Amino acid sequence: MSTSNGYVKYNITVNENSVDIANNKSNVTVSVRFFRTNSGYETYGSGTIWCKINGTQYSNSITSSQKITNSGIVLFSYTLDIYHNSDGSKSLETSSWINITSVLTSSEQYYYQNLTTIPRSSGVSGGSGNIEGTSTISINRASSNFTHILYYSFGSISWSYIASNVGTSYVWTLPSTIYAQIPNSNSGSGTIHCETYTNNGNTYIGNSSCSFTATVTNSYPTFSSSNISYQDTNSSVTAITGNNQWIVRNQSNLKVTFTSATAKNSASMSNYQITFNGSTQTKTSAATIDYGVVNSGNSLSFSIKAIDSRGNYTSVSKTITIYDWLLPSAIITLYRQNNYENTTYIKSNVSISSVNSKNSIVEIRCLRKKTGDSSWTYFTMSNNTQYSRDCDNKYSWDFRFEIKDKFGTTIYNLVLAKGTPIMYFDTQKISVGINRFPENTNSLEVGDIYSNGKKLTFDTIYPIGAIYLSVVNTNPSNYFGGTWVLWGSGRVPICVNTSDSDFNTVEKTGGVKTHRHNFRIGMHWWYGAAAGEGSNNGTGAYRYSADNYDGWARSLDSISTTINTGYTTSANTNNPAGKYSIGDTDVGSGVQPYITCYMWKRTA
Question: What Pfam family does this protein match (any one) (predicted)?
Fold first, then answer.
């Protein structure tokens, strides 16, 4: 480096004395040496030398005894520690300048020296995997001389030892103790710690860490079909089937029991979801479920999902053996010989459910009685066998069929109608019966007729209160029976009108056969006898209303008179005083055109 004297130069020297790896620093000595480039001369005097090291300025005083020759002289030296960058590198900046009063000066001149790169603590990554499975921990080390000790932390586990003297990687098995740290989750996060050492593990350099994920696997609850059992608890049914594992439709009482599942790897059992016949229910522990009577004709699957605290589950199904059963059914034949005779034929064709060949017909009973009687007679029938019995054809008969298998009974109720042919010719009575047997001689007799499912009889056509019109004066009881009286003599019927008080109830009477019309005759300004009128007087017709005359207007003086006693004085705002008289017409007829007949009313 140059000075103001062309023969005087200087240089800066950096000595790295030692390296402190643990503390990431170097110990250095910085010195400044001056020298002359020619011989036989000396430069000296009093002054100052300055040196800036790593940004810090230092100085030394110079005395005249310190002579600069061609052999050179160190005017500044300083030893200190220099800390490196975090990655261990360091470029040291130095500068120096001098001032010997009236002899020598220089500008500040710089020198840069790269120090030894100090290896730092290694980086670590990886380690994630399945608990009890293997995973690789990778180490990015700064020096091949570095070794490492590995630890992990997870939940309440702190700095648990993994391995030592590790180089660039290590395959570890995630320990099962992690399960207990995540009893309610299938994964969780922990930390891998890496300590870096050098000098065969004697010198500690530093520590680094990374997160890792531990995953729960193969932790489904232990649960199998052996945990599930079922049975028919209806002893009367099992006495027939001989097997409580057979469920009979609509007869057996199904009861299902399941025992507890076993949770794995520090989990606990949460609940059980039980599905059967389209319905799902949840239980928090082992249980017995009473399903009662099951209405299904086919075997059904019963399934349970055992769920642990992590949400892991094991599903198990078991088939419930179900045999179809329905009440016995039958096609029953019941008819009279020739459709009307006493001889009646009876037959039943019964069908039953097999229930795996355990079911059979127990009994077929036929009960009968005349319709209206209270007591029954019965006999036992064989299936698909025809029987005959005598049933008086003058009566209808009630039949009751009781069909019983091993599980239940079906009842059919039928009615055997009277033996009444559509048309019957009785040669002995010389009579004909339609829908009945004739009871009288020389007669045509009609039995019950129905319309729209309703029996048509005289009582339904002419009930009590009905009116019968005829032009023959014969009481209808001679035709129809019942009690009839003449009704409405001399009166015309009018339909009830509930909104008119004159016609609002039945059989209300009113009106007259004859009537008179009232009228009034008004005489204006009539004085004296009724033989005539004076000048400007007149007589007018009066419409019956207190204030309504014929509309005439007169302009005469008001005259008060007392003649014609019995006449009434009337006044109107439009007319002067006048007189009127009251009268009526002859009796007149009020009868509408009519035709007479006999009207009979049924009273009983």
Answer: DUF859
Q: Are 439 and 445 in contact (CB under 8 A)?
A: yes
CB 435 within 8 A of CB 444: no
Residues 6+ positions from 532 with CB-CB distance below 8 Å = none
Query: What letter would DSSP give residue 321?
Result: P
Q: What is the mean pLDDT of residues 334-351?
A: 95
Q: How many residues does the chain have?
A: 604
Residue with tokens 């810090």: 56
Q: By the 8 A CB rule, do 464 and 480 touch? A: no
Q: What is the mean pLDDT of residues 252-270?
A: 97
Evaluate whether 1 touches 8 at the Cβ level (below 8 Å).
no
Which residues are CB-contacts of 446 (< 8 A; sequence separation ≥ 6)? 433, 434, 435, 436
Beta strands in 284-383 (DSSP E): 287-293, 300-308, 313-320, 322-323, 329-336, 343-351, 361-370, 377-381
- The CA distance from 151 to 155, in Å, is 14
Phi first, then psi, for residue 540 (nearest 5°) are: -130, 150
Spatial strand order in the sheet of 129-130: 129-130, 203-215, 187-198, 147-154, 157-166
Q: Which amino acid is at 34?
A: F
Nearest-10 Cα torsion for 69, 75, 81, 82: -70
pLDDT over threshold 90, residue 143: no
pLDDT over 60 (residue 588): yes
Q: Is the pLDDT of residue 167 over 80?
A: yes
Model confidence at 95: pLDDT above 70: yes
Residue 510 is encoded by which pair of tokens? 């009113």
The Cβ of residue 143 has, within 10 Å, a number of other Cβ atoms equal to 16
Return all residues near 557 (Cβ < 8 A) that are at least 6 apart.
none
List phi, psi (to 5°) of 204.
Answer: -80, 130
Tokens of 452: 């729209």
Distance CA 205, CA 148 (A): 10
Nearest to 174 by CA among 149, 208, 150, 148: 150
Is residue 449 very low, low, confident or very high in pLDDT (cuts 50, 70, 90)? low
Please give the average per-residue pLDDT across 258-278, as a whole number. 97
What's residue 7's pLDDT?
97
